[in-house]
Design goal:
Strand order of the largest sheet of chain B: 1-2
Number of helices of chain A: 7
Largest interface: A-B, 36 and 34 residues
Distance between the termini of chain A: 19 Å
Strand content of chain B: under 5%
Number of strands of chain B: 2
Oligomer: heterodimer
Chain lengths: ~290, ~250
C-alpha cells in the first residue's frame, strides 16, 4: 500500500505536502533473514512535538503496513516505541513487499490541532478517527528474494535416499538417474529422517548435503567433460545447465573456467552458509519463531 | 500424489505461443506431453495431496463445492507456494484439464473463425496474469476463495466461503480489492453479509455491493483499515449498508 501524494481531509505530516511545517517524520526499516522468517527492525523519529505528545499519551502510535501483492499478504505492526521489531514467516512473502510507515491515530481525537499546522489551517481543528493517518514517511520496498524458498526448490533435482549396502560410506552421490541422488548410510539416513521435519534445520541440511553433492557434480563436469555425454539426457543436467547459464557459465566449458567448483556452487545457490550458521545460532540460543497471525 | 510445477521454459513457451496453440485448448484431453515431445514439462514437488475430484460443470453454481474440495486437499500449501504461476499453470493444463474444459472452455474466447478474440482473456484463466491473476486463474481462484474465508473457529469452517460465493460478483468484487488481502477486513465484510442474510435482509444487489466496496476503498485512502478492530470494521460496513440497502428501515 504505497501512499501516493494526495489531499487528506485533515493536515498530515508528509514529504509531499506542507500541511505541517517546520517538522518532519522519518522511518527506517532494516530487514534480515533467518531460516524461516523475515525480521524487521523499525526505527521512527519525528520532530513534531505535538504528534510525539499524542504518541506519549496513547492517542497515536507508530505503525508499519506490510503488503505483498504476489502472496496477497497484508498486515500492520504498531508500537508506541520509536524502535521496535517484528517477524513475518518467510512462506508469507515472495517478490516485492511494500512497506509504509505511519503515525496513526490510536483512538478518535476530537479537536485535533497542532502548532505546526500551515498558517492556512490557523485556528482550525479536526475530528480524527481511529486508524487515520497523521504522518506518513517515504515509501519503502523490500525484495523477498526467495533466498529461503530456493533452499526448497533447488533440491528438486536432488533426492536423498538410504544406501542399503553394508559397507556404505556415510555419504555418496549417484548421477545415473534424472535426479542427483545423495545416498546416506542407513543410520545416517534414519537420523536425517527424524530431523528433516524441522524447517529450521533446512539450511543446515542444505549446507551439509546439497552443497557437497553439488560441488562433487561440478568437479566431474570440470575435470571430466568427456563424461557429459552420459548425463546430458538427465533432468538434473538440464536444470543445472540452465542454472549455470543464468549465472554466466556454460556447462560444457567449465573446464576452461578459472572459478573453482566451490565458487560456482555458491553462485548457483545463493551462499547458504550464512543462513545455515544463523540457523545454528538460532537453535543454540533457543530462538523460536512465532507467526504474526 | 505429488504436486507438480510446470518448468519455467515450458511455461514461457506456452504463454508465448498461445495464439498458435489456441486450437489445442479445444482438445478433450491434456496435450502437453505430445506438445513437448516427450521431454518432461513438469517438476514434481515434495508436496503431497489426495486426489481432488472437481465437479466438471460450466456453471458457477459449483464453485463453492469445488473451492471446498481444492482448499481442503491443499490447505497445507503456503501462500508463497500458492502464488506460484508454475503450479497453477501445471494444474490447469493437466489434472484439472477436464474441469477447465467444462468451466472455462476455450470456445468462449474464440471468434466463429476460430481465432482468439482476446489472448488476455484465455491467458488469465489458464495462467496467472497480473496482480489479480490468482483470483482469475481457473483453479487458483478456487484455492484462494478458501484461503481468504476458511475459518477454523466456526462449526462450518466454510461458512464465510458460502457467503462469499453466493454470487460471483461478490467474490470477484471483494477479492479484487486490495483490502481483501487482510483476512480480518475480509472476514468482517463477510460476517456482516452473513448476519444480514440470517436476519432475512440479504445485501447482494450488484450495484449496491459495488458501491459498498468503493466506499471501503475510499475510507482506506484516509484511514489505515488494518488498524481498526474487527467490531469497528463491521460497524463501518453495517452503517454504509444501512444507507445503501433497500431494507434500511429494517435496522
Amino acid at each position: 500500500m504505497f501512499i501516493k501524494p494526495r489531499q487528506f481531509p485533515h493536515p498530515v505530516l508528509s514529504d509531499f505536502s506542507d500541511d505541517l511545517v517546520g517538522c518532519d517524520f522519518q522511518a527506517s526499516l532494516l530487514p534480515s533473514v533467518t531460516s524461516s522468517t523475515y525480521n524487521f527492525n523499525a526505527s521512527f523519529i519525528t520532530s513534531c512535538s505535538d504528534l510525539q505528545s499524542l504518541i506519549n499519551t496513547g492517542k497515536a502510535c507508530y505503525a508499519v503496513h506490510i503488503e505483498c501483492a504476489k502472496t496477497r499478504y497484508r498486515t500492520l505492526h504498531k508500537s508506541d516505541a520509536g524502535v521496535f521489531s517484528f517477524s513475518i514467516p518467510a512462506a508469507r512473502l515472495d517478490g516485492t513487499v511494500e512497506l509504509s510507515c505511519f503515525i496513526l491515530a490510536e483512538d478518535n481525537i476530537d479537536g485535533y490541532s497542532s502548532s505546526f499546522f500551515h498558517s492556512d489551517y490557523a485556528g482550525a481543528s479536526f475530528r480524527i478517527m481511529q486508524g487515520d493517518i497523521l504522518a506518513v514517511a517515504e515509501n519503502k520496498s523490500f525484495e523477498a528474494d526467495k533466498q529461503i524458498e530456493e533452499i526448497k526448490n533447488i533440491p528438486s533435482i536432488f533426492s536423498i535416499q538410504p544406501n542399503k549396502n553394508e559397507e556404505a560410506p556415510p555419504l555418496d552421490v549417484g548421477l545415473g538417474t534424472h535426479k542427483i541422488v545423495i545416498f546416506l548410510s542407513e543410520d545416517n539416513f534414519s537420523r536425517y529422517q527424524l530431523l528433516k521435519g524441522n524447517r529450521d534445520m533446512s539450511p543446515i541440511f542444505f549446507q551439509m548435503l546439497i552443497m557437497p553433492a553439488l560441488v562433487f557434480v561440478l568437479e566431474i563436469l570440470k575435470k571430466k567433460p568427456e563424461d557429459v555425454e552420459d548425463f546430458d539426457d538427465k533432468r538434473w543436467y538440464k536444470v543445472l545447465s540452465k542454472k549455470l547459464a543464468e549465472a554466466g557459465y556454460k556447462i560444457t566449458e567449465l573446464d576452461d573456467n578459472p572459478d573453482s567448483s566451490v565458487q560456482i556452487a555458491q553462485k548457483l545457490v545463493g551462499e547458504p552458509l550464512p543462513l545455515s550458521l544463523k540457523a545454528l545460532e538460532d537453535i543454540s540460543t533457543g530462538y523460536s519463531v512465532e507467526g504474526d497471525e | 500424489m505429488k504436486l507438480i510445477y510446470m518448468r519455467e521454459g515450458c511455461l514461457n513457451d506456452l504463454k508465448h505461443n498461445l495464439n498458435n496453440n489456441v486450437l489445442r485448448y479445444k482438445e478433450a484431453e491434456p496435450w502437453l506431453a505430445g506438445y513437448f515431445k516427450g521431454s518432461s514439462w513438469h517438476i514434481a514437488s515434495t508436496v503431497e495431496f489426495d486426489d481432488i475430484d472437481l465437479i466438471c460443470d460450466g456453471s458457477p453454481n459449483y464453485d463453492l463445492a469445488n473451492s471446498k474440495k481444492i482448499y481442503s486437499a491443499l490447505k497445507h500449501l503456503s501462500p508463497s507456494q500458492a502464488s506460484d504461476e508454475r503450479l497453477w499453470a501445471a494444474m490447469t493444463h493437466s489434472i484439472f484439464w477436464k474441469y477447465m474444459r467444462a468451466r472455462w472452455p476455450a470456445e468462449d474466447y474464440l471468434t466463429k473463425n476460430g481465432e482468439l478474440k482476446s489472448k488476455e482473456a484465455l491467458e488469465t484463466r489458464y495462467f496467472v496474469k497480473g496482480s489479480k491473476g490468482l483470483v482469475r486463474n481457473g483453479v487458483a481462484r478456487l484455492w484462494w476463495y478458501g484461503y481468504v474465508s476458511y475459518d477454523e473457529d466456526r462449526e462450518d469452517k466454510f461458512e464465510l466461503t458460502t457467503v462469499m460465493l453466493k454470487y460471483q460478483d461478490v467474490a470477484q468484487n471483494i477479492l479484487e480489492r486490495n483490502f481483501s488481502r487482510n483476512n480480518t477486513l475480509m472476514k468482517a465484510v463477510l460476517e456482516v453479509l452473513k448476519d444480514l442474510e440470517t436476519t432475512g435482509t440479504p445485501f447482494y444487489k450488484r450495484a449496491n455491493f459495488r458501491l459498498l466496496m468503493e466506499y471501503i476503498n475510499s475510507i482506506g485512502g484516509v484511514t489505515v483499515l488494518d488498524a481498526l478492530p474487527l467490531k469497528d470494521v463491521k460497524h463501518m460496513v453495517e452503517s454504509k449498508i444501512k444507507l445503501l440497502s433497500p431494507f434500511s428501515n429494517w435496522f
